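Researcher: Here's the sequence for the chain we discussed earlier.
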Amino acid sequence: MAKVVIISGTLSERSRLEVVLSLLEERLRWAGHTVAWIQARRLPPDALLRGEADSEALLEAQVRLATADVVVIASPVYKASYTGLLKAYLDLLPQQSLAGKVVLPIAMGGTLAHLLVIDYALRPVLAALGAEHVLQGVYVLDAAVEWRDGQGVVRDPDVVRRLDNAVDRLALAQPKGVSA
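Model: Thanks. This is the structure I predict for it:
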């Protein structure tokens, strides 16, 4: 089974995107994969803004990423693109950090008008980092998640289906040396 790293570019502690990512994590674990997270908002802001890629926290995140077979890169849509926080983190990654890895991009936005953010904003950066096997992305509307008693719930069965399909595609796209 694959080692999966979920990179979350959301700035918020209470995030609809992370509700979706937690559901994805549950599905990945159920399929037998191991899952680790890199939450960009928990990385040291000074190191991100100053480009200090050698800070201890960023080096630890780099090791998590380097040992992953599969990388999920997720961001809410801000100003028709992924977050600046995610950009700051991705800018500090070494060249070819995504080479040999299967990558699943996920974006979440308020309207369908931002549906192409994965293809036009995120994919070029993934390619610059060496990603060769980028799966079809999953775009989720904010309205797919609602809050009930302080807990986020994915209420759109289509989102659940698309996440399950992504997990299935992941199994078919395993890197060499990783069993399905």
